[in-house]
Amino acid sequence: MKRICIIGGGVIGLTSAYYLARQGLSVTVLDQADEVAAATSHANGGQLSYSYVAPLADAGMPLKALGWLGRKDAPMRLKLHADPRLWSWLWQFLRVCNSAANRRGTTRLWQLAQHSRALMAQLRDEGLSGFHWRRNGKLVVFRSAEGFAAAQRLLDFQQALGAEQQALDAAACLTLEPALQHLHGQLAGGIYTPSEEVADCRLFCLQLKDWIAREGLDVRFAFGQRVTGFERRSSTLVAVQTDSERHACDAVVLAAGVGSVALGARLGLRLPLYPLKGYSLDMPLGSQAPRLSVTDFDNKVLYAPIGDRLRVAAMVDLVGFDNRVDKERIATLTRLIETNLPHSGRLDTARPWAGLRPATPSGVPLIGRTGFDNLWLNLGHGALGFTLAAGSAELLSRQLTGQAVPPSLAGMEPAW
Length: 416
Ligand SMILES: Cc1cc2nc3c(=O)[nH]c(=O)nc-3n(C[C@H](O)[C@H](O)[C@H](O)COP(=O)(O)OP(=O)(O)OC[C@H]3O[C@@H](n4cnc5c(N)ncnc54)[C@H](O)[C@@H]3O)c2cc1C
What we know:
Elements: E1 3-7, H1 11-22, E2 26-30, E3 47-48, H2 61-68, E4 76-78, H3 84-95, H4 99-126, E5 138-142, H5 145-161, E6 166-169, H6 170-176, E7 189-193, E8 197-198, H7 201-214, E9 219-222, E10 227-233, E11 236-242, E12 246-248, E13 251-254, H8 260-266, E14 274-284, E15 293-296, E16 301-306, E17 309-318, H9 327-340, E18 351-359, E19 366-369, E20 375-379, H10 385-400
Helix pairs in contact: 1-7, 1-10, 4-10
């Protein structure tokens, strides 16, 4: 039986383990942490955002980002430093900041998201539960007429792909979601997507890990092991070396989030991946909690009721591979909540968190084989890793076992 080593026990590595083991493969998941979902999959925004998938790179983005430079409370921060990985990523990002590339990326992400949506429904139908899943709908609100007009153009494009979304005027937004009442007079309108879902990503990972065991799938977890290198014969990897053990294998899946950059470099691969740091606050629901998931587009803040808690996630900081919580950014986020959706959550007991989104310049993940015979990638899911996990993992399992891939899921393979 083929032995597969998956590096990374986040939502991408774990779903990969599930779908590969379902194909009858013998899987070992390696992670330096002591449990699944210890890094970026830990306390993300919880959105299963199957319709709202447009990448960050778009025609207006460079100008917008320039306007944010130097502003401490800006939704995006850029710390320029001498790391060539940053400059190379920024250069590639600028090259895809145009409408044609954005529409191409949106289409690919849309297809992968629909595949994910169907697989997640199948998992729930089979009995996977306990991760606060809910189809609560999502409302993205805009303050400027210009921003709202651009969103309506995107809506037209997404509707052509099959998304069910509605443009609402400001009054309709407040009626639909009374928690927005403090923004009365400030909104231009919103885009409502009734079919969007929400869940806790970390709980999903924990439940899926238990489910794998209950189903008797051949998956072993090797926690607390940091991968330090690879053993290879010519272009074939024969083992993964960690700080405590050697794992012989027939194939390796690199699903280590932003950690994939350093691991790829050990094999001479320059992965087009850079961390986009974000923050979240997790707290009990307040007296004026939103019922829907709400995105305050201009501030890039998302509010999601998950179970009996509110998760507020925000910010895109290009500040290197540092996942420490920055108190100043958390203070900014707290102020934004107090101003815009006061009493939505119990801020006095909020738990702050920071995570690094593993982002490709185009926003489209890399799923497929590299120049090595048996090294596979499943990484670069950026701001949509939870949303795209099931579909990406199932796609990878098809590729790795030589099964046909539907044409709608083409275009994710790394270009090596
Ligand atoms: C603020 C914020 C909000 C977000 N909101 C959403 C959202 O609402 N919806 C959504 O779909 N997505 C969201 N995301 C994105 C999503 O969280 C990520 O895309 C996803 O978690 C990435 O999963 P991953 O498995 O690739 O990486 P990770 O979860 O980071 O897992 C990688 C694993 O690899 C391990 N690893 C790394 N290097 C090594 C090594 N050398 N040896 C051993 N182990 C190693 C790490 O310990 C880690 O456990 C958000 C992200 C952030 C930061």
